[in-house]
Amino acid sequence: MRMSQTGDLWWKTAVVYCADVQTFYDSDSDGIGDLRGMTEQVEYLADLGITCLWLMPIYPTPSKDDGYDITDFYGVDRRLGTHGDFVELVRTARAHGIRVILDFVMNHTSDQHPWFKSARRSTDAPFRDWFVWSPTKPKTNPKDVVFPDKEDSIWELEPKTGEYYLHHFYKHQPDLNVTHPGVQEEIARTLGFWLELGVSGFRVDAVPFLFTPDRVPADHHHIRFDPKRYLADVRKYVTRRVGDALLLGEVNLPYKDQKTYFGGADGDGLNMQFDFAAMQALYLALAREDARPIEGALRRRPALDVTSQWANFVRNHDELTLDQLTDEERQEVFDAFGPEPGMQLFGRGLRRRLPSMLGGDGRRLRLVYSIMFSLPGTPVLFYGEEIGMAENLDVPGRLSVRTPMQWGDDPSGGFSDAPPRKLTRPMPDGLYSPERVNVANQRHDQDSLWWFIRNLIRLRRQYPQLGWSTVEVPRTKPRSVLAHLAKEEDGWTMLALHNLAPESALVDVSVGEVEPGSTLYDLLNDRSEHPVGKDGSVQIEVEGYGYRWLLLHRPGDRPPQ
Ligand code: GLC
Predict the structure, then answer these.
(1) Is 496 helix (H, G, I), strand (E, B) or coil?
(2) Residue 113 has what pLDDT?
(3) Looking at 69, 250, 275, 318, which residue is catalytic?
(4) How far apart are CA 265 and CA 479, in angstroms?
(5) Cβ atoms within 10 Å, residue 490
(6) SUPFAM superfamilies this protein is in (predicted)?
(7) How many C-beta atoms lie closer than 10 Å to residue 363's C-beta?
(8) Of 201-215, 344-358, 466-480, which gets the smallest average pLDDT?
(9) Could you say which of 69, 129, 158, 205 is catalytic?
């Protein structure tokens, strides 16, 4: 049986869309998006064509890290709705062919979580061991501080006991001691709970931090904790509960380290991980108008077992992190896409969305999404990308890219009936205001970005082979052009060409050995056919910032539909 013909590895051909309930759609006019609003917009998501909805955290929270600081892993934040509303959303989404996955934070809680409130009281308090304590202040390697704008250590003094607790993120997010059987049990119980409510899996937050050596408390070094084994246990557990459950992990590490989080040869770890390395290399390539950085990344991208998958993205809810680039390379990207200090964050990233980084150049914007959707792997969109929403730099920190979805052209952007001052966050004004950038206008204009993205999604769904394929990067001239091949094991092949420079280019490339009489068929633009030379070589013109998806058509293949 060819695995690709079974539906159980659904994530390999999914189109994922990340949304935050509080900024998506407000159904009760209080200015805050809610679960009922999200449910009302399922039709919209289905029309766009996405097949998996990733919800950012919906749990009760003091919201000091926008919901990534949780006080009850089983709960639903009251402002967003109830468990009943949540189940309605999952059920409605499923009826439209959309699965829901939930952000899950197992690295830390809020300091307002009852476990931590108890733990901090005394050294023998209930739940004390569920967090990580040290009687003296261990040294912090500055590299380990995730939010250097607010923190300078990963250990914080708890004055009541005179001991220090571990927190890789903000000090109000104490790290859980995942080596503790009680914590492990509770994580499993929570995952099981949400699976029972119908989710198809989880986006697992901050995975590598779970496994840092400082996690095991100094006086507990007798505990034998094997992180990879633990991850495999979690995977086994969730797939026992729901056979095709997804664990999509946030692991921002170089490929060789990242690979191990997929588990062993049969993929018993995370089943999908974001490709941070290619994402960062893509920005460097765009800044230089030279394809080599992204080509290098794609060549280094490890091959995976059949059940595992890369997730391709160009933006997400955090800063655009460039931490895998060298200082000089990062500076090049800053100079090109975020020169002002107010656009930069933590010395490693940009708190911007893509359209404004590209100076509103629609052609380049389409180029980037064409690259993202043509790459083997699973595409992941962040809400608003489909209409080219920009950030609001007046909103502090990473929240600048988390402004409400722009549905219409009224001052509250069709997001809410409440006046703008009551909205979750202020929308951008000027060039990217809801008046200029909104869903309603673009859905009525077939030349809009919305229709372009919708078409890319349609092509992904028409050619599921893209999700099953692996990437090959042939030698190409000129350097400004990225050429990559998506190849499936039965010989299905697509050549994608992307010109990162403004001048048009005549591209020389080889698709490898082909049967005589093979042609390349243009899927995206003009449906033109191009003969392929005996040695697989082709010469094709690509306009400045142009893109082409060319399906290999062998003699005897059915005509492309
Ligand atoms: C992840 C999230 C980020 C959050 C952090 C702490 O990196 O993407 O938004 O602040 O974890 O939970």
Answers:
(1) strand
(2) 98
(3) 250
(4) 35
(5) 10
(6) (Trans)glycosidases
(7) 13
(8) 201-215
(9) 205
